[in-house]
Amino acid sequence: MKTAIYPGSFDPLTLGHLNIIKRASMCFDKLIVCVMVNSKKTGLFAPEERVELIRRVVSNLPNIEVDASTCLLADYARKRRARVIVKGLRAMSDFEMEVQMAVVNRKLNPNVDTMFLPANEKYTYLSSTVVKEMVRYGADLSDFLPREIIQDVKDKMQELVRRGG
Ligand code: ADP
User: Of 49, 101, 113, 133, which is least surrounded by CB within 10 A?
Assistant: First the structure.
């Protein structure tokens, strides 16, 4: 069974991420979308909430599992017996850092390699950070986020604003 991991912060999942998920899932028997938990960063959504939102969006795609991990990615891949890490590349500016991480991950786990998918041209500008800015200013989110989670993102941002965040 060919298993790949698509790691990220997904705070929140965007249409750019979803595009990569759909394309990558066609190349493998199983794709694990893994929310990588970085204890130093507090996000908009808690990791469990991100997992729940992603699960909702991918619920009708057959070969996707959604998980969260606090491990090093190379160790997580070993644990899950995955040989491939999938990354989306939006611009050359992503490239340098991503190649560096791919080399490090391969050093830590020689059984794992990284495959890059170019972002769909519609989404090269899109990041979770851009989405958070858009929500703040009440912009239409339908070009940025899967429709199933738009309300959740708006509600979360309002909650944050109410609390003075
Ligand atoms: P960000 O916070 O930058 O949106 P994440 O850390 O959640 O991103 O990204 C997870 C993975 O998804 C990374 O490989 C990243 O390059 C990729 N990615 C992020 N946004 C897009 C997009 N719009 N199109 C394609 N790939 C993307």
Answer: 133
